[in-house]
Amino acid sequence: MEKRPYEFELERINALIKERGARRVGLQLPEGLKTVAIEIAAEISTETGVDVILSGSSCYGACDVDEKLARTVDILLHFGHSENTFRKHFLSKERTCAKKEYNSFGNAFLSKKRFVLEENYQEKVVFIELRSTVDIKPVVESAVAELTGDCAGLVATVQHVHALNEAKIVLTRSGKKVIIGKSSNVTYDGQVLGCEFSSALVPCDEILFIGSGSFHPAGLARYTGKRVIAADPFTMQISIFEPETMRKKRYGVIARARDAKSFGIIVGMKSGQFNLSEALALKRKAIAKGLAAHLIAMDEITEASLLGFKVDAFVNTACPRLAEDYVHFNKPVLSVNEFEVVIGERGWEGIWP
Q1: 71-75, 174-178, 269-273 — which is least confidently predicted?
Q2: Half-sphere exposure in the Cβ direction for 320 (13 Å, CA)
Q3: Is 345 inside a domain boundary?
Q4: Residue 306, domain member (yes or no)
Q5: Do both 126 and 146 map to the same domain?
Q6: CA dihedral for 304, 306, 308, 313, sign (positive or negative)
Q7: Structural domain for 284, as ranges
Q8: Cβ(26)–Cβ(81) under 8 Å?
Q9: Mean pLDDT throughout 279-295?
Q10: Do both 168 and 260 map to the same domain?
Q11: What are 173-177's contacts with CB under 8 Å, separation 24+?
């Protein structure tokens, strides 16, 4: 069998299944890896004799665990993401947080936040990070020509974060100063998520991102306000993301929402994205400004599912990057910070850190 571009850790998985005496195992993979799901399932089943159930649900991040499948199986293998320290911290807070809040009419009630993963099955979920087996040095060498400053911040997705020191050596030999940032919100130094870029907040001229696709580098450019060079070790493609180009798209959405009189405030019902207290707070802010606001609970948030609601604009409290997916939607979809700009509680300069 040819070498796979990712380490699926099948030996570890098989040992874990036998150790726990599991009889039914679930597999949840990101969209781009569902093409190998059948193959992986067959290998696990052949080796261990377990029944394997493949998740057909989304798999956007560690916040997007297939909870229904997790309840059904003895072990759920969630591929492609790390169980980040910020997520563990959030779980701890969610488990203990109970406080007095007020509804839209000023009536007090005791709210308890929902667990990120219910205690009775959170230990069933095992994260397989899918570390890349591809050598990153060739693409980093190609990326050097695009680095215009003296100092580069170096970041990667979890698939390549183990190779950041190799990338640093390549850049240092080319005369660049390199900084790999730290953050308590992620598991590894230099790691970025689709919604978490704090490890890129370092004193540098530009950012070198190692990974695939445009989702992460586009977010990096918006978040840091710095030029991002994206280097894909699989395709050897180098792409440039300019912050002003990325931010202008969001400014346009905010401008479209300035005349809105009614808002649909989206509450993500996936437990890793559930934030009812924030949604209620935004509703109270809207009402205080004389605006109409309505809470809308959704599992999968799509353009089709939003179309039927008769509001002027939407505010997203689920995945913080979701609003960017709907930049061309016929109604503005705002992030929380963007909504606060619209209602005059935050300046334009306060959208980004």
Answers
A1: 269-273
A2: 15
A3: yes
A4: yes
A5: no
A6: negative
A7: 252-350
A8: no
A9: 97
A10: no
A11: 174/141, 174/144, 176/144, 176/147, 176/150, 176/151, 176/152, 177/150, 177/151, 177/152, 177/204
